[in-house]
Design a protein that fits this description.
alpha+beta; eight-stranded mixed beta sheet; 4 helices; 8 strands
Length: 180
């Protein structure tokens, strides 16, 4: 995906999320702290290409992390990307797919995460509204509510208890991340 395609994906995502939030009457406070957007690649070659396409749009090192048999890259953009009425973000998470999911499912703009840590209330609301979600426990760096599918395209919403930039700084200081 080019930078322009990511911007277009963010715009479309913002439209779909607005419709989802309105339809299910979700609380505004969930969306007060936009954290980052994520792009899912089709395979390792696509991941490497995506990192190189984004390199001109950052002034800092692109960090990588190995997780579940794949690499996750974090790109801090020099300028922010607007995501509809949900604000702007300057972090893009570039995801190599898990080996068993390479080339399967949504490829390209995949999700947006918001920092919101009132999980008990959020899971209660999601359950009452009949919205499916997941509470993964396989990432020691943070907790999140994920796999909230917001539209037919397969875009996801995730609520995360910590900003990604804080997680990256902490993990880098412990030697868990490396420069891509």
């Amino acid at each position: 995906m080019t930078y322009k395609e990511i911007e277009a994906g963010a715009d479309l995502y913002g439209q779909r999320l607005a419709a989802f939030v309105e339809h299910y009457r979700l609380p505004e406070e969930w969306f007060g702290m936009p954290d980052h957007i994520a792009v899912k690649c089709s395979d390792r070659a696509d991941f490497d290409e995506q990192i190189e396409l984004l390199r001109p749009f950052t002034d800092v090192s692109i960090m990588g992390k190995d997780m579940h048999g794949r690499t996750l890259g974090t790109v801090e953009l020099a300028a922010s990307i607007m995501v509809g009425s949900f604000g702007e973000v300057n972090i893009i998470e570039v995801m190599e797919p898990r080996p068993e999911k390479a080339g399967v499912g949504l490829i390209g703009f995949e999700h947006m995460e918001f920092t919101y840590d009132e999980f008990a209330g959020a899971t209660y609301v999601l359950g009452k509204r009949g919205i499916e979600f997941n509470l993964p426990d396989d990432n020691p760096a943070h907790q999140c509510i994920d796999e909230i599918i917001i539209c037919d395209e397969g875009f996801e919403l995730k609520l995360n208890d910590r900003p990604l930039v804080d997680i990256i700084k902490e993990e880098t200081s412990k030697g868990k991340n490396y420069e891509l």
